[in-house]
């Protein structure tokens, strides 16, 4: 007896890269050959398993009229309103049992069908190829009923020869896509699992004599100022570069004087490769990358990466990015002083690399390889150390290098991410080194640097980075000779990262340290009808890693977060230091002089700019400094604070920002504000059940303030709680320093206020309290002393910790409530944007105003946010509050407890009170959601403290 079983799907679990695809070659977007985009609406049928359906759908004449439709490029789980399954987010855990190369029987499989006609202009001669730029994770292809092959390698291109199969009309392209395959074991990147044809599908006409593969070699000799061009081409032809008067045969090299390419000066020459059958436009950048004197040098100079890790992300379309979104990323990066991108953790859409060439960004192009989940079994069975998988690894390396090799922006090839170590990686490195001697090889996972040209680490703490910079880190001989980068640092999850300016100072102190790449560019929040942006778990995943997927410098909708503004400041390419009667200006670019900038100088009095002057700065070369005289004498502040601001602005429009765009700035205080004065003269008097002191009315029994000059106030009283940030909460592997967890354990979110006494004397009202959590013996003796001069009310808060405090405090200050109906906005003199002790480099101190809504930073998972630092005074809700010393303020329409309880922003609803925190201190932010916590100097220790606020009602 025989049975007919399900169709064979053995290729799905086959470790090989696939069958039938053409060898990889250089990618280019356009040429004079015809092409036909097959993007658009495709017929779609979803099955629960790989073998649920036979192949009959691929046959010509198959009736798919009742199938659903999806848009290609796209991920089916992000289409169909949930009818096609949901995204799954895991960091490193495989969302299926680890038994390589096997995958679950439940293997969502999407059959895609597209019928197309050739355009009239399609030539009758020649042949054609079908190109798939990205399909996750395994695809099998048929054209007009004939199978072309199958492939894995989701973020890599695959081409198939289709010449004889094409018809003028009614071509049937059938693509079967499996969510899980052996390839999934190699694609365990920390991101959403998103199956589908998510990059372009294109039919390319290949005329007789069309270009095949070609390799543009364009080097630059900084000692002569000459570039050497040689284009190796499978198909002989000619190469022309009109601006350089070059017209040579392929394979022939030519040396001429050129302007070099760098990320700062991205000079591209338009050229053309002409083969007998095709003209391919080239954009040529001359540059030489070398490892020299233990340093990464480009065109003879050591470079400093001011980089970011970029995953491809769009909140609605996932990793199916359109050109405008890619351009937006590049523009945002350039406008925020970034100069480098690591394409974590796979080659991006090739158009992104064109943009990096054009606008100028150094690129580490990373292979589509991560096997992180094997760490759960101590790397046993790791595919990168198993020869059976090596062909797949080599195929991935080749598809990346061959596709992307003609981009001047790429300076490093990266073997992949978090894949342990093994022979397969070594084989990849050897192949890459052999194929492209003009670039360096990166891989973080091997700290011995066996296969790499750079010592790379992630999340190394400041002190360790400094040790490495001083070459005190030891290590094997080869590593000791290599430069160092942090391929990931500064974990931008939620509020933060902290400590960036401190890292930058260390990078700049030691030559061996060549900078780093923040983790990461964008929050991968998914637009969700009820939740705003969804994260892990929001789609009911059985295994997930929550909001660890939201750890970017920009929000899912690409609005810059304060972390990006802070980074921009930390890495700014011009430095200013106050000097006697002047300012010392330093050019911190690697290649550009300062002639593209103009400098604006102004004084501000009490935070108000008083008019701009031009500061004349010589066109300093990289590394040079000059001392420049201030262009005007300081105005008399008459007791108000006087300071200056100097700004470096683009002197002319650039492709990425207009004239006047701010590149760098600095401020100095020239004359401090006068002390606030003691506010004495008035004394407390009893009035029924109230005590009146100047403009203040207090509850006579409790000493609680009720109103100031008729403005109702709840509180103020001591507050130490903040809704823990992701960086406070820390990562699960950091048991002793997860402050968010320890704070909660101690009970800092449920402090009790015991009233010990209300005392009125001739000129003050004193309220004595002890603030402490239930079940613990630690506490904070807190004394509120109120005085007044009749018009203003001064509060001095004295805090004395009792008991053995083993943890820092989240914050230390007072919280008060104001009537929401009367509190729409705030006006203040202090930092313009959000700032915390170690995220304060970008705190520009001026007079600012903002609505209460604008004072909130919309972190995808709600948490402490929005504090303004260095505040001298703030006016809101009919009150003016001055502080001594300067303070932090935040204001929101919900309490910290409500903020803490919320999982999404949509959980937060405004109440009748605006809650205002006036803080003497805040604990640092750090990077502990993945890396190190705040540096010790940013700890808010439980120590005796005293601070004052002066309140007055304003009309
Ligand atoms: C790194 C990893 C990234 C990401 C990050 C944490 O270990 O390379 O992919 O997971 O940690 O967000």
Give an overview of the whole structure.
- The protein has 955 residues and is mainly beta.
- The protein has eleven helices and 58 strands.
- The model has no long low-confidence stretch (mean pLDDT 97).
- It binds beta-D-galactopyranose.
- Beta-D-galactopyranose is lined by residues 91, 189-190, 345, 417-418, 458, 488, 519, 548, 551, 930.
- Belongs to the glycosyl hydrolase 2 family.
- Its EC number is 3.2.1.23.
- InterPro entries: B-gal_small/dom_5, Bact_Beta-galactosidase, Beta-gal/glucu_dom_sf, Gal_mutarotase_sf_dom, Galactose-bd-like_sf, GH, GH-type_carb-bd, Glyco_hydro_2.
- It catalyses: Hydrolysis of terminal non-reducing beta-D-galactose residues in beta-D-galactosides.
Q: Name the helicity range.
A: 10-25%
How many independent structural domains? Answer: 5
Q: How widely separated are the two ends?
A: 96 Å
Strand content: 35-45%
What is the helix tally?
11
Number of strands: 58
Ligand species: beta-D-galactopyranose
Write the CATH architecture name of the largest domain. Alpha-Beta Barrel
The level 1 CATH classification of the largest domain is Alpha Beta
General shape: globular
Uncertain residue ranges: none
Short description:
Keywords: Glycosidase, Hydrolase. With 955 residues, the protein is mainly beta.
């Amino acid at each position: 007896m025989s049975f007919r079983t399900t169709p064979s799907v053995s290729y799905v679990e086959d470790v090989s890269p696939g069958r039938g695809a053409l060898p990889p070659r250089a990618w280019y977007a356009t040429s004079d050959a015809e092409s036909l985009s097959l993007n658009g609406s495709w017929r779609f049928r979803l099955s629960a398993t790989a073998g649920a359906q036979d192949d009959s759908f691929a046959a010509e004449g198959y009736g798919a009229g009742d199938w659903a439709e999806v848009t290609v490029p796209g991920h089916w789980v992000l289409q169909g309103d949930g009818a096609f399954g949901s995204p799954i987010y895991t960091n490193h855990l495989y969302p299926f049992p680890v038994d390589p190369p096997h995958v679950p029987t439940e293997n969502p499989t999407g059959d895609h069908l597209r019928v197309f006609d050739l355009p009239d202009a399609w030539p009758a001669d020649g042949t054609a190829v079908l190109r798939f730029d990205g399909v996750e994770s395994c695809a099998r292809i048929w054209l007009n009923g004939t199978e072309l092959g199958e492939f894995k390698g989701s973020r890599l291109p695959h081409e198939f020869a289709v010449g004889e199969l094409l018809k003028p009309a009614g071509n049937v392209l059938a693509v079967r896509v499996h969510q899980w395959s052996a390839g999934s074991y190699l694609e365990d990147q920390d991101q959403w699992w998103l199956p589908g044809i998510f990059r372009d599908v294109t039919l390319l006409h290949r005329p007789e004599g069309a270009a095949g593969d070609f390799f543009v070699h364009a080097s630059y000799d900084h000692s002569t100022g000459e570039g050497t061009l040689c284009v190796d081409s499978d198909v002989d032809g000619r190469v022309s570069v009109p601006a350089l008067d070059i017209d040579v045969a392929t394979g022939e090299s030519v040396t001429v004087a050129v302007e070099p390419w760098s990320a700062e000066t991205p000079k591209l020459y338009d050229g053309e490769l002409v083969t007998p059958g095709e003209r391919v436009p080239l954009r040529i950048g001359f540059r030489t990358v070398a490892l020299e004197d233990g340093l990464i040098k480009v065109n003879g100079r050591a470079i400093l990466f001011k980089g970011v890790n970029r995953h491809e992300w769009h909140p609605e379309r996932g990793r199916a990015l359109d050109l405008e979104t890619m351009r937006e990323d590049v523009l945002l990066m350039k406008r925020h002083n970034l100069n480098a991108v690591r394409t974590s953790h796979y080659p991006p859409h090739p158009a992104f690399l064109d943009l990096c060439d054009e606008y100028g960004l150094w690129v580490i192009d990373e292979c589509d390889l991560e096997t992180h989940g094997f760490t759960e079994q101590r790397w046993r069975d790791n595919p990168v150390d198993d020869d059976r998988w090596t062909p797949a690894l080599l195929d991935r390396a080749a598809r990346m290098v061959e596709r992307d090799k003609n981009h001047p922006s790429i300076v490093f090839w990266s073997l992949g991410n978090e894949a342990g170590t093994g022979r397969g990686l070594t084989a990849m490195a050897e192949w890459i080194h052999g194929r492209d001697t003009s670039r360096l090889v990166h891989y973080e996972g091997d700290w011995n640097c066996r296969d790499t040209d750079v010592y790379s680490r992630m999340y190394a703490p400041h002190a360790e980075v400094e040790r490495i910079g001083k070459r005190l880190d030891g290590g094997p001989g080869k590593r000791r000779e290599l430069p160092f980068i942090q391929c990931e640092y500064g974990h931008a999850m939620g509020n933060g990262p902290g400590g960036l300016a401190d890292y930058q100072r260390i990078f700049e102190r030691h030559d061996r340290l060549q900078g780093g790449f923040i983790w990461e560019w964008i929050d991968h929040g998914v637009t969700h009808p009820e939740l705003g942006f969804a994260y892990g778990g929001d789609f009911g995943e059985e295994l997930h890693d929550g909001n660890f997927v939201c750890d970017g410098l920009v929000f899912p909708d690409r609005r810059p977060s304060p972390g990006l503004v802070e980074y921009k400041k930390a890495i700014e390419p011009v430095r200013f230091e106050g000097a006697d009667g002047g300012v010392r200006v330093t050019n911190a670019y690697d290649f550009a002089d300062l002639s593209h900038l103009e400098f604006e100088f102004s004084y501000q009095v009490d935070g108000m700019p008083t008019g701009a002057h031009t500061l004349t700065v010589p066109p300093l070369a990289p590394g040079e400094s000059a001392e420049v005289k201030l262009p005007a004498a300081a105005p008399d502040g008459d007791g108000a604070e006087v300071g200056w601001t100097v700004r470096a602005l683009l002197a002319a429009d650039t492709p990425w920002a207009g004239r006047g765009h701010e590149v760098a700035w600095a401020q100095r205080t020239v004359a401090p504000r006068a002390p606030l004065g003691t506010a004495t003269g008035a004394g407390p008097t009893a009035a029924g059940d109230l005590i009146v002191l100047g403009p203040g009315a207090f509850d006579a029994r409790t000493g609680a303030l009720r109103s100031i000059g008729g403005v109702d106030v709840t509180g103020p009283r001591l507050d130490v709680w903040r809704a823990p940030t992701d960086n406070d909460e820390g990562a699960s592997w950091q048991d002793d320093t997860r402050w968010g967890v320890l704070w909660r354990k101690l009970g800092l979110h449920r402090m009790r206020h015991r009233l010990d006494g209300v005392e009125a004397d001739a000129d003050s009202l004193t309220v004595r309290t002890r603030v402490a959590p239930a079940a613990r013996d630690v506490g904070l003796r807190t004394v509120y002393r109120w005085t007044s001069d009749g018009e203003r009310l001064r509060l001095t808060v004295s805090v004395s910790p009792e008991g053995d405090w083993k943890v820092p405090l989240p914050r230390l200050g007072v919280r008060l409530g104001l009537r929401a109906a009367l509190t729409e906005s705030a006006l203040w003199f202090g930092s313009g944007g959000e700032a915390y002790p170690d995220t304060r480099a970008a705190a520009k101190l001026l007079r600012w105003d903002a609505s209460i809504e604008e004072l909130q930073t919309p972190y995808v998972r709600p948490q402490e946010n929005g504090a303004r630092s260095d505040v001298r005074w703030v006016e809101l809700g009919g009150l003016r509050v001055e502080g001594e010393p300067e303070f932090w303020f935040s204001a929101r329409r919900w309490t910290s407890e409500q903020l803490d309880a919320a999982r999404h922003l949509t959980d937060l609803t405004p109440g009748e009170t605006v809650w205002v925190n006036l803080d003497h201190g805040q604990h640092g932010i750090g990077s502990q959601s993945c890396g190190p916590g705040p540096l010790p100097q940013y700890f808010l220790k439980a120590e005796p403290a005293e601070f004052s606020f002066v309140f007055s009602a304003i009309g």
